[in-house]
Amino acid sequence: MRGRRTLIAASLSFSAVLGVALGLGLYTFVYARGASYLTNDPAACANCHVMAEHYAAWMKSSHRHVAVCNDCHTPHAPLPKYTTKASNGFWHSFAFTSGEFPDPLRIKDSNRRVTEAACRRCHGAVVAAMDTGHAGARTVACLRCHSRVGHL
Amino acid sequence: MTSPSTPPPPRRLARLLLIATAVVAVVAAGVAALLINILERKQEARNPFFRVVEIDDRTEDPAVWGRNFPQQYDLYRRTVDQVRTRFGGSEAVPRTPSDVDPRSVVARSKVEADPRLATMWAGYPFAVDYREARGHAYMLEDQTFTERQRVVKQPGTCLNCHASTYVAYQTLGEGDIVRGFERLNALPWAEAKEYVRHPVSCIDCHDPASMQLRITRPAFMEGIRALKAAQGVADYDVNRDATRQEMRSFVCGQCHVEYYFKGTEKRLVYPWARGHKIEDMLAYYDDIDFADWTHAETGARVLKAQHPEFELWRQGIHARAGVACADCHMPYQRVGAFKISDHHVRSPLLNINRACQTCHNVPEEELKERAEEIQHRIHDLRDRALDALVDLIHDLAAARAAGMSDEALAPARRLQRHAQFRVDYVESENSTGFHAPQEAARIVAEAIDLARQGQLALREAGFRRP
């Protein structure tokens, strides 16, 4: 019966550790206003001071009345949208906590593709005639020339 | 029923629990790190700075300001760094200290590296000692100990841009900085030096009450007022009318400009009353028949171009795009939750990431190559212009020695004056043309033409090279 008692003790200890971690995680989630990241509110993106200038620039940009951060930086469909949010949320937390990130910030290729698709979701009719590349190879990118319409 | 090779279930479970605990511990540590990081940033954002000392309009010592603004002060102190770039900057050259000059480190001598400069400046103190410019931290020390001090008696005017003079203006002018400026100019250099203690300091650019940028140099206030008047803007008061972004260049333009000392009172004047381009300034000098000195070899009344970074930048594409001096020379950087401007003022080529890549989304190496290619072209052109100018100087000297009259020499001397001011303009400007590449190329190309025209003028007057 000694084995069984050890088993119970070990499981209880693990539950305690798990509980502490969970509590810490929940506290951090609330403290860091985690729930706000599930919304569409652009102010949520500027919770993090690193985004303050982008947020300020967006407020003065031509797109402020028609698009919020999520319209250009996340896909439209719900599942990819929250997957993108989760992935960026994790990597941003990781980068800013570890301090390992380029300054000035640089967009990653995967995120650039999301934004490029977002341009075309609204302006597709206009740019269809310009897309002269062969199938699959996009030689023209909206962001190459219009990288500042959303923010600097 | 366990086989001897596999451990009994409780032990396997124990190992599993141990691994799971370790994983949870790592995740918890990561979450804790994130939490602390967010906490720190929030704390930093709440207190932009701690006022530990009171700063007022007579606080000259940057170390006192530094107690309230340690991050900016820390960066400001780094202007002691001596780092070379391809065409400028300064590297530390050791020297043996002497009684008259206790410096153990100086920058490379430009007149020794290129003797043509000594020919251009013959009869002027710059021919004796002229070095690569070091960082702001050295401005007062380098002026105190340059050999130029020993060959001429300089006026206090020089200190306007070699020291923190705002408090000295107040002391000398009994509260009126313009009167203080006039009195400082009129003093002999050594006497004027008694009134200053620091190289350019916080108070020279910042209002101590609001920390906003502020012009403290009367010469700039008067110069920009004259320039605006020439452009049709009456009664321009720079501290009242300039925008914040303009101020981020104007504070630098207080010193990084072309200037001359007017009259016996040695008033510091920026020659902008007709405009900002080199022709405007040259026409201004011609109008008042001003000369810095008479050339020792040719007898021409010539001009010394100073360091017209501000004027040349105004002709370039960056100025046109609204980019200020501070955007490239003091780019913003992130320190914790803050964005502060880098008070380690230096060449953008030593800080390409923040200085250039904020706007130019191009690899660092490519940007560096582009800048250096521009500088290389201007440097080559400037080389040819110096050759042409030295040829003219030698011809003029020979014609003079051969007994040609002042009247016959006059056209060539005038061409020397105009060619020389142009070569010197690009030579003394501290960007090797980068601040406005096309304008710089135009200026040196004209200098080549004017110098060769001068040689032709001598031949038309009957000069034959022996």
Your description of this structure?
The complex is a heterodimer of chains A (152) and B (466). With 152 residues, chain A is mainly alpha-helical. Chain A is 61% helix and 0% strand. Chain A has helices at 2-31, 42-45, 52-59, 69-73, 78-98, 109-127, 142-146. Chain A is elongated, with a radius of gyration of 22 Å. The mean pLDDT of chain A is 87. Chain B has helices spanning 9-46, 62-68, 70-77, 110-113, 115-120, 139-145, 148-151, 166-172, 177-186, 189-193, 218-230, 238-241, 244-253, 278-287, 309-314, 317-320, 325-329, 352-355, 364-401, 406-428, 437-460; strands at residues 93-94, 105-106, 260-262, 267-269, 293-294, 301-302, 332-335, 338-341. Chain B has a two-stranded antiparallel ribbon with strand order 1-2. Chain B has a two-stranded antiparallel ribbon with strand order 3-4. In chain B, helix 19 runs antiparallel to helix 20 (406-428) and helix 20 (406-428) packs antiparallel against helix 21 (437-460). Chain B starts with 8 loop residues before the first helix and ends in a 6-residue tail after the last helix. The A-B interface holds A 3, 6-7, 10-11, 13-14, 17-18, 20-21, 24-25, 27-28, 31-32, 48-50, 52-53, 93, 96-97, 102-104, 106, 147 and B 8, 10, 13-14, 17, 20-21, 24-25, 27-28, 30-35, 37-39, 41, 45, 333-334, 337-339, 353-354, 357-358, 361.
